[in-house]
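re the bet — no i am not wrong, look at it urself. input seq straight from the record:
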Amino acid sequence: MASADSLTVPDVPALTQAPLARPATGLTPSLRERLAACARIADADGEPDRQALALLRESGLLGLALPYEYGGAGVDAHGLNTAVEQVAQVNASASIMLFQHYAVSRRILEHGSPAQRRRLLPRLAHGEWLAASAWSETGAGANKKNLSTTARRTADGGWIVDGAKSFTTSAGLADIYLVLAQSEEPAPDAAADTGYGAAGQTFFLIPADTPGLEPDTSLQLTGMRGSATGFVSVHDCRVPDTARLGPVGTAASIIAGVRDSGATLGAVSVGLAQAALDLAHEHAERRGLTAQQAVRHRLVDIAGEVEAARAIVERAGRRTAPDPGIATLHSKLFAAAAAERVVNAVERLLGSAGYVASHEINRYGRDARAVALMGPTNDLCKELVSLTWNS
């Protein structure tokens, strides 16, 4: 890890000429098994899933979102959604960490300065660094307005960031955080209200070992228990202006562009729904229930839900809709709700077997509920879609 000051160092690592070898179209059986074992342990003890992160670093998956010239694999949004879905099938907490890493990596690629891209993207692509978003905070609401975290200029042109972030995935595990703060210098041409973020907000890339940045993973979650979701405080955190991502005061426009990317948390929900469906098939075959027409038809109905959710996530990732951003929002809404319906249907099919606390279907259910609460929350997704009707 490196301090914020290191972002100004002129020498940069050499860029690799070869893409990462790991394809976006599948996990090896060994990696699936090891990630699944990590998920069971982390769900039981509620501790950050460090072993799963180590597996992600080794696998090459962390570099999928970045182009070849930075050491990545050059995968598009559809490929990223596929990778996230497949990780979610065995370890939803790891898939959330992966999704957030992709999101920050792409924001740096799109809005970072040439120096930031040269300095940071090879580390993110090679898995040397894990990136995390630190946007949410208590009292600001799901739409990230009325932030208490502030950034003020210093005499030397740098910034002092002060505040506290909540529900930050990969807290304490990430090597660099994308922190959202209310700056003192709103851009005069700040974007209009998009329903998410506000004028005068600025993003800062703050390495984990920067003095004043302190993670707290004492938060005990019901679901996604291995995701290291917790608090991150930034107290008198001094960073140079080179840590700023994008122009001052224009974070809201960067946020608004995220949904146009086609990458969607709905992919996590599809992975969970598929895992539940697979479990239902295994149970039915083991108990000889597939001989019963009623059971087979129930499985068909459940499979239809999974396929519908996957289809809308694929449409979002391929960005073929007339409005890709709206399609991405719908994909999160529909897939998150579908995953909960699928898990509930599988629970009923399992009968008393699923009523045992240690049964995996219960973890799937708790993890599936968590997706609806992740930013943008499902309620906010509905608001963002409906706001377009007023334009």
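see?? Residues 100 and 197 are 18 Å apart (CA to CA). told u. also The two ends are 45 Å apart (CA to CA). so pay up
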